[in-house]
Structures are given as structure tokens and as C-alpha cells.
Design a protein that fits this description.
With 422 residues, this protein is α/β, with parallel strands linked by helices. It has two domains: 6-161 and 308-390, Rossmann fold, CATH 3.40.50; 165-303 and 394-406, 3-Layer(aba) Sandwich (Rossmann fold). The chain has 13 helices and twelve strands. α2 (46-65) links the parallel β1 and β2.
């Protein structure tokens, strides 16, 4: 598989920009609607961040090629891209920069820390912000609370991505169903997580859902293991896990920490039934699989995933594979692609695109069914600004590819659990 280098990615990005209104576009063109797309395209989260940007660019190209925003005279979309460099504090800096350049909506930002930093810009400058990826519940909940209590007048922040609490509920459900299907009841499931805003939120959501569900399998609630993100070594944490004699390791990682954790589990020869995560990056990206090889084989993780039973998803995935030098249309590229489709739908229905509040009104009445990801129903937004129909799918690395294995209606292959012994 050809590695997508930073230089190659930037060439792709520039090429996409020309299509969506960059330097290569004709001078005599209609006014464009500018969207500030901020993602971590360099630094430790560069692979998922680059996937987000390319997914968004491809969707913009598709909307423009289909005639733009038809209800607004064929108005074309244009991306103003930003890079957080995987530094949460840069979320605000980059959001302010693209808004100052004319962005009328914001999109981003993959990691919860930088997304949370972008929220203040959206609220202060009255710029509607559609979160494509970021799971921490407080990102939208805090804004909704401040509006409800009268501290702010309008909520400009909405999210089409599962929250950490919904990740937790689905993970507990899928764990329970998979164990029942496999006729195996683990007695010692050990939760390990990266101790950043995302990891903290995900772990809390998983633990809370477990306490409510009270499943037959046992999560060691008092023996949760965390590490500072990014870590330099995880041998101590894996030793702690090994001492607990786990049946299943349940990790919440970032890509960099997964590259340390999984090899360390192999080195210390943990005798486990499998690795099953409640939801995080680090287990499905093509670059990760290429690095981790057999260490990630048979690992399962509950993440948002593309609906590959949809022919249109497969068409986009084929094009994405060509544009990305062989990478998979996944959680990151897929949710950013869908976010642009939702924005296009919102702009079609908004009464005035120069009025941020009119765009928000259209966001609130969204009922979109054209997404390419797995959903439990139409995309819409509840009182917190979240999409309750954004759900996860259990994927597993089989034959060095991420494949949907649960629930049954989404599965493309049968899961393998327990994993084969070496």
C-alpha cells in the first residue's frame, strides 16, 4: 500500500481546492458560500485529520458538480481549510482565522479538545458550527445549558456524530450481544484509556452505561488504567493490566498510543480472549494497520462506520481510495463527507444565507436521509444540538482490513471471538 505522505497529501489538498473555488477556478463565477474546515492535518493526528479534510473536499466537489445549492441559484461551496497541528489550543486560533477570511460556517475538528476550543469562536462571532467528529458530551451540552439559562441567546453549535455517552451505551450493548453470540462470558474486562478530554469522556460514558445495563460479563470498574496522552511508553500500564489477569482488554486510544499499546500487549504475552474497544481511533486507519500488522489483527472496536451496503457509499469509497492512494473510506473521511451533505441541505432550506440565525433555524429542522454512514434514522438535532441517530458499528480487523461485523444488519463478515491463539 502506498503511504500518503504529507507532501502527497498537500498536493491532493491543493488540487481539491482548485475545484472548490481556489486559484484554479474561473474568475467570473457566482459568489461562493465559504465553509471553514479545521482539522489536525499535521502532528500525531495527521492521518485521521487528512482523511477528514479530503472527505470534506470530495463532498464539496460532488455538491458543486451536481449544480451547487440549487435553491440559491446554483451557489457553489468553497472550503477555507485550517490545521490545528494536533494542538487543542489551535482550534480557536484556526477558527478565528478562517472566519476572518470570510467563513460563514465552521466544520471540524476531529479531536474533542480543539473542537471545544472552536465552540467559543462560533458562539462569540455568531458563526454556525457543524461538528463532523468529536464525541465529548460537554461540547454541545454546555452551550445548550447556557442558552437555556439565558446566558447566551442562540446555540450555533450542532453535532452529527455520536456523543461519548451514546458510544458507551452502544458499546455495552454490542459487547453483550457479541459475547452471547459467541457463548463466552468474560469475567475480567479491563478498561484502559488515554487521559485527554476524549479519553476521559469515552471512559465515563462506557462505565456509566455498564452500571446501568448490569450485563452478565464483568468490567473491573475499580481497576481502570489511564495514561497521559501522548505517552512515551506503556509497558508499566500493560504490566498493571496483566496483573489483573484479564479476559478482555478494552482500550480507548489515539493512533500514537495504539502503536505503543498493542505491541506491548504482545511483548508481555497477555493471555486474553481478545481486544475489544468501546470506541476510538487507532484501530481502523489504513496507516495504523500497516504499522501494527498482526498486533491489530482480530481487534474489535465500536466506532461510527460507513454503510457499505449502500451502492452510493461504495462509489464514493472507490473514488476516495484513488484520491488517497489506497486508503479506506472510514469514520473520519465518511463523517466529514456527510457533514458537507448536511450543510448543503441546510443551505437549500435556509431563508437567508447572510443571516446566521436563519441558518441555525434550518439546522434545527434538519431531517436528512442522504448520508453515507450508518445511522439509526434520519439526521436531525435534539435539544442539545446532537444527532440521536448517529450510532456506532463494531468493526474488526480481518485479513488486515477493517470490516463491519456487528450488529447483524450492518455486518459484512462474521466476527471472530475469541481470537485464535498464536
Amino acid at each position: 500500500m502506498t503511504r500518503l505522505t504529507r507532501r502527497t497529501f498537500l498536493k491532493i489538498a491543493v488540487g481539491g481546492a482548485a475545484v472548490v473555488g481556489g486559484p484554479g477556478a474561473p474568475r467570473a463565477q457566482a459568489k461562493t458560500f465559504k465553509i471553514g474546515a479545521v482539522h489536525p492535518v499535521t502532528g500525531p493526528l495527521a492521518e485521521p485529520g487528512q482523511a477528514c479534510r479530503l472527505g470534506a473536499q470530495m463532498a464539496v466537489e460532488a455538491v458543486n458538480a451536481a449544480g451547487g445549492i440549487k435553491g440559491k441559484g446554483g451557489l457553489k461551496l468553497e472550503l477555507l481549510v485550517g490545521d490545528t497541528q494536533t494542538k487543542p489550543e489551535n482550534g480557536r486560533v484556526e477558527a478565528e482565522r478562517v472566519v476572518n477570511q470570510g467563513a460563514q460556517m465552521l466544520l471540524g475538528s476531529f479531536d474533542s479538545g480543539s473542537t471545544n476550543a472552536m465552540v467559543s469562536v462560533a458562539q462569540q462571532k455568531r458563526v454556525p458550527f457543524l461538528i463532523d467528529i468529536a464525541a465529548a458530551d460537554p461540547i454541545t451540552a454546555n452551550v445548550a445549558k447556557s442558552v437555556k439559562e439565558g446566558q447566551q441567546k442562540v446555540q450555533y453549535v450542532y453535532r452529527n456524530f455520536p456523543t461519548a455517552s451514546s458510544f458507551g451505551r452502544k458499546a455495552v450493548q454490542y459487547f453483550t450481544e457479541i459475547f452471547a453470540e459467541a457463548k463466552v462470558t468474560p469475567k475480567r474486562v479491563v478498561l484502559m484509556y488515554c487521559n485527554d478530554l476524549f479519553g476521559q469522556s469515552q471512559s465515563r460514558g462506557f462505565l456509566a452505561a455498564y452500571k446501568v445495563a448490569k450485563p452478565a460479563w464483568t468490567l473491573l470498574e475499580d481497576d481502570v488504567i489511564a495514561w497521559p496522552e501522548p505517552p512515551s511508553d506503556l509497558s508499566t500500564e500493560v504490566s498493571k493490566a496483566k496483573a489483573l489477569k484479564p479476559d478482555v482488554i478494552s482500550p480507548i486510544t489515539r493512533p500514537a498510543s495504539a502503536q505503543l499499546l498493542l505491541p506491548e500487549i504482545r511483548k508481555q504475552r497477555l493471555d486474553i480472549l481478545g481486544i475489544i474497544g468501546p470506541g476510538s481511533p487507532g484501530f481502523y486507519e489504513a496507516g495504523q494497520i500497516a504499522v501494527l500488522k498482526d498486533d491489530v489483527e482480530y481487534a474489535m472496536v465500536s466506532n461510527p462506520w460507513a454503510n457499505f451496503k449502500n451502492p452510493r457509499t461504495n462509489q464514493v469509497a472507490d473514488e476516495y481510495k484513488k484520491r488517497s492512494h489506497g486508503k479506506t473510506f472510514d469514520t473520519n473521511s465518511g463523517y466529514s463527507y456527510d457533514a458537507i451533505l448536511v450543510i448543503a441541505d441546510v443551505l437549500e432550506r435556509a431563508t437567508n444565507l447572510d443571516d446566521a440565525d436563519a441558518i441555525v433555524d434550518a439546522l434545527k429542522t434538519t431531517n436528512y436521509t442522504g448520508g453515507l454512514m450508518q445511522y439509526a434514522g434520519p439526521i436531525h438535532f435534539n435539544e442539545l444540538g446532537d444527532n440521536p441517530n448517529a450510532v456506532t458499528t463494531m468493526t474488526q480487523i480481518l485479513g488486515q482490513k477493517a470490516v463491519a461485523v456487528w450488529p447483524r444488519e450492518a455486518a459484512l463478515q462474521k466476527f471472530v471471538f475469541p481470537r485464535p491463539r498464536a
